[in-house]
Every structure is written in C-alpha cells, then in structure tokens.
C-alpha cells in the first residue's frame, strides 16, 4: 500500500517501518498527564477576566468586593501587576505579542483583552470571583472591517519580503491569450485544539518552573526569562504531553499571568484558559482577501502571475498571513508579482496556524490555476506540468528535489483521473451533482539548530534527551526510530525524553521543522556514541553520554529551494436541493522527504487533508461588528469537520529523500492541509459549473 521510501542503509531498518506511539498506552489509559491536571501541593488557581469592550481605556477595577469573596487570594491588574520587559526580539525573530505581556497599561485594544487575573484557592472560587469583578471602561469607537480597498493596507516583511516583483505585469497580461482575474476570500479561522492552554508556575529553590502545554519548552523559557528579567538558567519549562498546538501554543497570557501570580503569592499558581478565552487570547488565522491575476499563452504557459493577499492584524502586533508566498515557489512567469499586505484593526492578534500563508494562499492560487485550465481548454494537471519551473521562480535557487510531477502522476493513476470528463455540471446521480478536482501543495522544508544528548546506560538501553515537543504528531516515536537506527539497536532499547527546557536549546514543533530538526541532533549524538562504544565494550554505572549541537551543520547547509510537495484530489457530491456539499473521497500523494514512521505520518497527512475539507466547507469565525467579538466562540459555535463529513481520505507518498539531511527528512506537518481546500472547491465547480471563491462553501452560497 505504501510506496517504499529509501534512504541511507541503516542497521535496524526502524526508520520507514510503521510503529505505534511509544506513549500510546499511557495516553489511552489516562496515565499520561496533561499540563492542567498535574497535581501540586498548595496549588492556587487563577482565572482571567477579559474585556467586554472592543476598544478603550480601563477606568477602574473594583477589587475590594471580590477580595472579600471565599477563597480569593489576589486580583492582579494593570494597577498592581509586576512590570515586564517587552522591548526585545525573541528567538522567533519577533517581539512578544503584547497580548501575552498582560496588565502593563490601561489600554484595551480589542474585545477579549485580558484585564485582570483573579487567584483563589479553587478554580470554582476563582471563576465565581472573576465573573463578579466589576471593571469600568471609557469606550472608544472600534473598526474591525477588512476590505480589499482599504487605503491603510501596507506590505509587511515577515520572515519573507512583503513584495516580490519582476517583469512588466500589465504588458504580459495584455499580450496573454487567456487571462484570469479573480478575487478570493477566506474567513477568520481558529486552531481549536482539543487541549486548551494551561500552565502552572512555581518558584523552586530560586528557579522558576513552569509546567505547560506548548510547542517548544526552550522557546517559552527564553521568552519568560526575558520578560521577567531572569537569567536563562533560572527558568525551567516542562511540557510532556500536548493535546494539539497547530501554531497557537507559544508564549501566551496564561503562562505570564501564572508566573506573575506565583511571584506575588509565593505559591504555585495554575491558569487554564477556557475554550471561549482561547478564541481571543491564543491567536487565529486572519481572514484573507486575495486577488490573483494569471495570463497565459495559447499553450497554457504563464506569462503573468500576480498574487496579492490582504490579511489583518491587531493594532498592537504586526503579524502577516503570507498567503502570496506560495506563488513564489509554485509557478514562474515572465512577469511575476506577489504581495502580502495587512491592515491594522481593533481585533485580537492573529498568529501562525497550520500552513500559515500556504493554506489560504493555495486555495486562491490553485483555484485560479483551475480557472485558467478551463480557459485554456487544458487538463488542470497538464497545465501545472507545463508550468513546472526549473529553479525557484523568485529565489532563482536550485530545488532540493521537486517531485511534484511524480505526485501528480501517481495521484492521477490511483484516483482514476484519466477517465475524467472535463465538462462541468454533467454528472448527476439522483439529486446529487458529482465532480472531481485537483490542486498542488507545497510547504517549506526547514531545519532549526538543536542540541541533544544520548546516553548509553549500563543496562544496555539508551536514553535520548532533547527539548522536543510532541504536539500529537508522534515526534517521540519518530525520534525513537531515528535514534535506534543511528545507534544500530532495536527501538525497544531506546527511551526518548522530551519536553523539558533543561535538556538544552532545540527547535520548536512548528513550521513543519520539528522531526527534521530534532532527528538531525539525535542522529549526530547517537552516531558518535555508537562509534565511541565499539572499542571500550563496557559502560560505567553512570552511563556514557554524548551531546550534539547542529548549529554549525545547519548553518552550512547549501542554499536551495527546499520544499515538500503534494498533489491533492477530491471527489464531491453537491445536493441540488439543499446546496450541501459532501466530499466522497480524497487522495493526497506527497513528496515530503523520507518518511520516518508511515503510521503516524499517514495520520498527520490525512489530518491536514481533513482540515482542508473543514476549511473548504465548514470553518468560519464570524465577528460581530457592533461588539467586535465573535458569535459562538466555542466548539459548539465553531463548525469543524466531524466524522460524518470525512469519507475515504487517503494519503501516500513518493520516494523523495532530502539529499542534504542526515536522515533524508523534509517535513510533513503542514503540507497536508495545503491545496486541500482548492481541490474541494475545484471539484465543486466540476460538479456544478459554478466557481465558489469565498470559503466556506456553505449551502446558502451554493444555492
Ligand atoms: Mo505551525 S502553524 O508552524 O505550528
């Protein structure tokens, strides 16, 4: 069933072989404890109070009546909270979002802004007091409207330039035989992971310890040390099990407010966010308005490509959803322009959310390619193959393997694409119209410097220590297999310990870089340990430990256009009487480097594709213009795909080892969602003959 992936010859063959999660039994029996349920002696509980106004100034926080309530220990707010140091650029290359630097002034920049923390002996007492706390405000008018013609939009250089441009767009468009000029929109979307954010902070022998749920313990430890002006060695962050992250679990208000309260009260304090609080405090995907202009010659070769994406950010933090970035890698054209722009509005700060940029950007770009294929009278796959670039269209760099065409060939064969009638709206089955669609996917394949320690124990087992994060991906299991191969032993002799900043600096579980970054460091330490063990033969009681640091090796990596790719296929049925769209089957074929664990990799890729179905058909956070807040900000009101919405979803891959990576890994964390919504939308057009350019494709929009 699985296409074999090859890599370096290894002693045990663990890498590439399906392996169940090493912590799976702990998770299903409840033995695995999550951040909000680990017991501490003398624990106090904090409850955040969020602003009810969308913009203004705090006039008063009436703490006295609340402090008299049962169990209440303190109320922290801008008038009494410890001052934080926020004037720095953190390890992610950005200053901290002021949303997490809580209680520093009386400004309210958006609805759901944290204005106070009530701390009590029990969570119930804290919640009751928090709900009773009276805060008065001076209201100011607010503005939350994102529109394509906003004069205050401006391009933002995030981790990539805001604008790239070459050639004469207008001239090439005018000379093109076929032109597509269309606008697409995607709504505000939320991560909504199963486990809400939770942190417990305590001082222990002069060290700050935070037990948290996050995507990188050394990242969060570094931010807390900087904010509280502590020596880096005085902060320890642990995060053993994480029930989902998706970009949202970095430094947030819950950790910072818990540390403040633990410092003031001199006892452990836990802050757990409610699901409603997560909708304003933990970031989200900005809505986007994207204009795509494509011009092609009679043969479908692109002469002009223009992709402009407009997203929004808060007035306090500049974050751009870089949706036009995907065009910089996917297709070349004689004239090529991309722009990522933002408008600053009175809304909560957005953040990274799975496939940031690529997920909404690929919806617009890949749907526009489908429209161009129709204009050109070309098969959508053939159009893409004719436009495969030789080198990075904007970077000019060589590709470190670009096996997109292989994904399309394998996908087309397995999906049965060859028999497809290109005409839209001609397949009917009772009240259902049927259609199929395809789209390309790509996501950068990077690596972050990491350190690891591997110990040969006296009993013949091995312990790996690395500040990795398993946010549900199966990272722990992947690293077990990688270490086993590098050591030349069976996986059962390897234990992997992760999620502790005391293990030393390591990259985050983010940007699809986790497994690659950590595997590199683990491999380096394990291979050296194996070499060292051969001559001696015996291991002392304290074991033999080898440490690695990949900073230099990653710094020396050749500059290439390094991406994972994929081809997405979807078949849909559209009910002509209700407008309901049902996905009948999906297939994704990926070229995403060497696959470490086919079992968890398949789950991660299909999980991304399911999210793409959800993005295409269901997800939409609707903001109320009057209050500035959301309608139904919880799992009851935020519609996500459920089992009944997810039919046969299959993911597989072609052989694609990265030649420059010690294990051959690229990354699979995000490429699964990319292109998935476009494949569904293109299938809806094929079924109905109508282009749906605004997500989600709700029944009322279809009718
Ligand atoms: Mo991912 S959005 O980089 O956690």
TrEMBL record:
One of its GO terms (molecular function) is iron ion binding. Residues 29-141 form the Aldehyde oxidase/xanthine dehydrogenase a/b hammerhead domain. Residues 1-19 have a biased composition (Low complexity). InterPro entries: Ald_Oxase/Xan_DH_a/b, Ald_Oxase/Xan_DH_a/b_sf, Ald_Oxase/xanthine_DH-like, AldOxase/xan_DH_MoCoBD1, AldOxase/xan_DH_MoCoBD2, AldOxase/xan_DH_Mopterin-bd_sf. It comes from the Bacteria. Keywords: Molybdenum, Oxidoreductase. Residues 1-20 are annotated as: Disordered. PANTHER family: ALDEHYDE OXIDASE 1-RELATED, XANTHINE DEHYDROGENASE. This is Xanthine dehydrogenase molybdenum binding subunit apoprotein. It comes from Streptomyces capillispiralis.
């Amino acid at each position: 069933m699985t296409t074999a992936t090859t890599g370096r010859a290894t002693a045990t063959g663990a890498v590439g072989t399906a392996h169940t999660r090493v912590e799976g039994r702990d998770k299903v029996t409840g033995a695995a404890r999550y951040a909000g349920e680990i017991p501490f002696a003398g624990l106090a509980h904090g409850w955040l109070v969020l602003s009810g106004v969308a913009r203004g100034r705090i006039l008063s926080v009436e703490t006295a009546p609340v402090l008299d309530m049962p169990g209440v220990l303190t109320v922290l707010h801008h008038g009494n909270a410890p001052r934080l140091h926020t004037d720095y650029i953190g390890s992610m290359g950005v200053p901290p979002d002021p949303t997490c630097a809580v209680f520093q002034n009386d400004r309210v920049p958006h609805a759901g802004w944290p204005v106070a923390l009530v701390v009590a002996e029990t969570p119930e007492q804290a919640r009751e007091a928090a709900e009773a706390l009276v805060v008065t405000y001076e209201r100011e008018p607010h503005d939350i409207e994102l529109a394509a013609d906003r004069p205050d939009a401006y391009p933002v250089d995030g981790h990539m330039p805001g604008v790239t441009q070459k050639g004469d767009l207008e001239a090439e468009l005018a000379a093109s035989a076929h032109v597509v000029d269309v606008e697409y929109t995607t709504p505000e979307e939320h991560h909504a992971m199963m486990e809400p954010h939770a942190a417990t902070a305590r001082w222990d022998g002069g060290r700050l310890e935070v037990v948290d749920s996050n995507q990188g313990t050394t990242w969060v430890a570094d931010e807390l040390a900087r904010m509280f002006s502590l020596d880096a060695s005085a902060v320890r962050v642990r995060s053993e099990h994480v029930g989902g992250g998706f970009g949202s679990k970095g430094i947030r208000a819950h950790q910072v407010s818990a540390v403040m309260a633990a410092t003031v009260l001199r006892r452990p304090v836990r802050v757990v966010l409610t699901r409603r609080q997560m909708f304003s405090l933990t970031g989200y995907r900005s809505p986007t308005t994207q204009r795509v202009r494509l011009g092609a010659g009679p043969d479908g070769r692109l002469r002009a490509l223009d992709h402009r994406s407009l997203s929004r950010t808060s007035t306090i933090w500049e974050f751009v959803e870089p949706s036009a970035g995907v065009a910089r890698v996917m297709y070349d054209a004689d004239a090529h322009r991309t722009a990522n722009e933002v408008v600053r509005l009175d809304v909560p700060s957005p953040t990274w959310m799975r496939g940031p940029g690529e997920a909404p950007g690929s919806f617009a770009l890949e749907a526009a390619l489908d429209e161009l294929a129709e204009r050109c009278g070309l098969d959508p796959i053939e159009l893409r193959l004719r436009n495969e670039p030789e080198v990075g269209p904007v970077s000019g760099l060589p590709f470190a393997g670009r096996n997109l065409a292989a994904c399309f060939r394998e996908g087309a064969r397995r999906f049965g694409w060859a028999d497809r009638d290109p005409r839209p709206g001609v397949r009917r089955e009772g009240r259902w119209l049927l259609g199929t669609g395809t789209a390309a996917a790509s996501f950068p394949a990077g690596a972050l410097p990491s350190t690891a320690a591997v110990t040969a124990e006296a009993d013949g087992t091995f312990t790996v220590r690395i500040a990795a994060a398993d946010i549900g991906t199966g990272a722990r299991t992947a690293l077990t297999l990688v270490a086993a191969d590098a050591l030349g032993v069976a996986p059962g002799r390897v234990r992997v310990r992760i999620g502790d900043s005391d293990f030393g600096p390591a990259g985050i579980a983010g940007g699809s870089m986790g497994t690659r970054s950590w595997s590199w460091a683990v491999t380096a330490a394990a291979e050296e340990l194996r070499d060292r063990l051969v001559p001696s033969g015996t291991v002392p009681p304290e074991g033999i430990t080898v440490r690695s640091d990949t900073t230099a090796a990653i710094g020396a990596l050749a500059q290439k256009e390094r991406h994972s790719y994929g081809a997405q296929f979807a078949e849909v049925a559209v009910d002509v009487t209700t407008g309901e769209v049902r996905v009948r089957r999906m297939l994704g074929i990926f070229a995403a480097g060497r696959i470490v664990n086919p079992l968890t990799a398949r789950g991660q890729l299909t999980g991304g594709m399911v999210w793409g179905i959800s993005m295409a058909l269901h997800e939409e956070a609707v903001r109320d213009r009057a209050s500035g807040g959301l309608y139904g900000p919880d799992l009851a009101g935020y519609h996500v795909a459920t089992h009944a919405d997810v039919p046969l979803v299959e993911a597989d891959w072609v052989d694609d080892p990265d030649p420059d990576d010690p294990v051959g890994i690229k990354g699979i964390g995000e490429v699964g969602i990319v292109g998935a919504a476009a494949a569904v939308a293109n299938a809806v057009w094929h079924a109905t003959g109508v282009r749906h350019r605004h997500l989600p494709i709700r029944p009322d929009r279809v009718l």
